[in-house]
Amino acid sequence: MSETTVTPEHLALKGRSLRARAAWLLPLAAIPVPFVWLCAGLDEAYAPYFQGLLDALGIAGLFLSISTLMARPRNRFGAIGGIALCLVLVPACHLLVGIFANIQEQVRDLDLRENADVVCAALDKYAKDHHGAYPPANDWLSRLSAAHKGYLPGDRLPPVRWASPMTATQHEALEVRTDRFPLVTAGEIARRHPPTPLGTDVGAGHWSADGRFDHATFGAIIYDDDPATRTYVVYAVGRRHDRAIIVQAATNVPW
Questions:
Q1: Cα distances (Å, whole numbers) of residue 126 to 120, 152, 177, 221
Q2: Does the N terminus or the C terminus of the chain have fewer Cβ atoms within 10 A?
Q3: Mean pLDDT of all residues in the chain?
């Protein structure tokens, strides 16, 4: 019975073969990462972590490919192919995660803009029933939500689907007072000052907690009015990572 002798050269060849395979497998493992993030329905705040994983796969694969090439393998094209995968495939997957995150942000902004439009339509209906006067800022939502008035669909604001971490009902969550917030008020708009521009960062954002809501609550709809001039402004507060930003600003004063 013959015995197989394992020589150092044989072990070295085996190691190079495993290293070459790993150099190909690591960048190929990057392909499902963006789709795992997308299918899991994770928030775009997790995107940097997935991009970090992709970077790690790319760096490790590139290191193994270069070390395999320096070891002078018989088939250098395999090592060169591994380098090409790391330099092309991994950055493409990295970019794909960013695209998915941007799409998620756009969908969320659209959700808020639709809510702001619903509020503006309700305000116009309310004004027709009250001789052109708009509801006061201190109880605007309760007045627009009055039963059987038809100002809001179902007498409530549509739910903000992406703001599920809010613990209060939508009726409670979106009634935000505007006495202290860094936004252009309805009175200032009546004096021909433009509304706060879209994309304005209004501070470190947060989810609602203990029934408290302010200008930096993710998903909030902010309303202010100036009774003297019958001017109103509606803002929608979106989210960019941990920052609260204005994604919609609507007023009855033409600009």
A1: 10, 10, 19, 17
A2: N
A3: 76
Contact 197, 235 (CB under 8 A): no
Question: 196 CB contacts (<8 Å, ≥6 apart)?
Answer: 183, 184, 202, 235, 246, 249
Residue 234's closest CA among 214, 249, 244?
A: 249
User: What confidence tier does 81 reach under pLDDT thresholds 50, 70, 90?
Assistant: confident
Closest C-alpha among 111, 110, 104 to residue 45: 104
**Measuring CA to CA, how many Å separate 170 from each of 77, 108, 117, 158?**
60, 16, 16, 8
Using an 8 Å Cβ cutoff, are 87 and 42 in contact? no
pLDDT tens per residue, range 9-36: 554 555 556 666 666 777 788 888 888 8
Cα(170)–Cα(47) distance, integer angstroms:
28
φ/ψ of residue 249, rounded to 5: -140, 115
Token pair 């970090």: residue: 52
Alpha carbon distance 81, 87 (integer Å): 10
Residue 135, both tokens = 């509801």
